[in-house]
Amino acid sequence: MTLKNHHLKSLGHSPDIIGLLFSILDQFNNTASFIDKGHIVVVKGGSNDQFELQGSTLVAKIFAGFCNWFMHLMSDVAGSSGAAGRGSGIPIPFYNLLTFLNVGAFGQDNHSLATIFTKVFEEGYDARHGAATAIPPLVTELLIRVLYTVKRRYYHKFEWKDCVPSASVPELRRMLFVGYGILCTGDAIDAFVKSGGELILFLKNTNLTAWVRFGTLAYKELIALVKQGHIDVEKIDRYIEGEYRDILRNLQ
């Protein structure tokens, strides 16, 4: 663990539910939890440490633990105090889970996936960079939804209430899938050109936010494809049974 990656390896620095859980547990137990080579390592605090969470009840102590965790993240989001240059910020939510992938051997140095994602973080792929990468997907999402609404209203002549761009609509879902597919294709080409094929630089220049969104849309399309033509037998049976009861009721 180094000054460049300690925020990534420390589970309490993760800005998500996992980081909150481990932060509160560590504060209650006077420990520190880290990820090392795909495993969780818990370090016990010194015996002379008399730190105790504020609050007279369990709920109050948990609230104090939450406040400590949140304020600690806010103090580190722009980089550790006293760090040279840009400093090491906090990781993107759930990014530290990638460091559990201690498998594979890539590149000339035979780095595992966990090591590669750690080095990508050290190159500056923290929450600040993640917030910047969210801009292109946000623009893509809004643009497609606006175009879908305009098309429904002025081309198909639907009422405004029927033009709400709900993701449950198959047409809009496919439009988003294609839009993000184009965005991610351009992103992959750009990252490859900038990195020259070097894996760490390639991942550093990819838009992780766009790829995650594209992955969720691809999963939804796959589920829709699998269920295409599927008949819900139980639902049909319930409908027939209800109709049968109505017939018997009318005959009495």
Write the layout of secondary structure elements.
Blueprint: H1 6-9, H2 17-29, E1 31-36, E2 39-44, H3 58-76, H4 113-122, H5 127-133, H6 135-155, H7 170-195, H8 199-204, H9 208-227, H10 233-251
Antiparallel strand pairs: 1-2
Helix pairs in contact: 2-3, 6-7, 7-9
Keywords, please?
252 residues, mainly alpha, 2 domains, two-stranded antiparallel ribbon, 10 helices, extended
How does this structure look, described?
- It is a single chain.
- The chain is mainly α and 252 residues long.
- It has two domains: 6-116, no CATH class; 134-227, no CATH class.
- It is built from ten helices and two strands, in the order ααββαααααααα.
- The chain has a two-stranded antiparallel sheet with strand order 1-2.
- Strand 1 and strand 2 form a beta hairpin.
- The protein is extended.
Structure, briefly:
The chain is mostly helical and 252 residues long.
Kindly state the percentage of residues in helix. 55-70%
The count of domains is 2
Structural class: mainly alpha
Strand order of the largest sheet: 1-2
Most strands sheet: 2 strands, antiparallel
How many β-strand stretches?
Answer: 2
Number of helical segments with 4 or more residues: 10
- Uncertain segments are none
The radius of gyration over CA amounts to 25 Å
- What is the multimeric organization of the chains shown? single chain
Determine the strand fraction and express it as a percent band.
under 5%
**Judging from the principal axes of the Cα atoms, what is the shape?**
extended
**C-alpha termini separation:** 80 Å
Please tell me the overall pLDDT.
83
Order of helices and strands: HHEEHHHHHHHH
